[in-house]
User: Which sequence fits this backbone?
């Protein structure tokens, strides 16, 4: 077991949508961890999330239900299609989503079509020395707080996605 999901967040949005400074629709939840899953000090230092903090978190099942409700709202016009899910570093995030799906909806197909802004950055911005979320967000003019929290990453990813779509629109 390499790690536990501590926090998850999402924001229903479109790259073409007008800026949403209030981040209407942003949802972020701490996950309640089992008592035998202490948070490593390194993780606590970079996130600010402690064992005490997660004690007030929600169950992964209730978080999954909320995420699926949001996905269903997004795909309401075409319920047979997977919901597009833009993630900055999908290789890291996808296993957590797959685990949530496996634990909570194993009988149904995985409900998301994942788009990775990191992979797009590798191809779209090949000369950038770094392609972490902080570096890409900064390249496009968005600064991030020091602590690594899901709500801040969601906002940065939405900003990056909007800028990447604009860049693709002007270059293609």
Assistant:
């Amino acid at each position: 077991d390499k790690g536990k999901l501590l926090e998850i967040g999402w924001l229903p949005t479109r790259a073409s949508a007008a800026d949403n400074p209030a981040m209407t629709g942003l949802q972020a939840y701490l996950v309640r961890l089992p008592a035998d899953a202490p948070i490593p000090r390194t993780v606590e230092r970079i996130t600010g999330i402690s064992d005490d903090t997660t004690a007030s978190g929600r169950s992964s099942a209730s978080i999954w239900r909320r995420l699926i409700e949001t996905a269903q709202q997004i795909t309401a016009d075409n319920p047979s299609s997977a919901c597009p899910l833009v993630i900055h570093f999908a290789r890291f995030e996808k296993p957590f989503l797959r685990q949530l799906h496996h634990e909570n909806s194993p009988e149904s197909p995985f409900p998301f079509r994942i788009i990775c802004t990191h992979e797009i950055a590798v191809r779209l911005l090949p000369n950038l020395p770094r392609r972490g979320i902080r570096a890409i967000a900064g390249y496009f003019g968005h600064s991030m707080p020091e602590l690594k929290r899901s709500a801040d990453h969601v906002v940065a990813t939405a900003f990056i996605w909007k800028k990447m779509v604009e860049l693709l629109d002007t270059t293609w």
Notes: Strands lie at 7-10, 27-30, 83-87, 112-116. The chain has a mean pLDDT of 91. Residues 150-171 form the longest helix (22 residues).
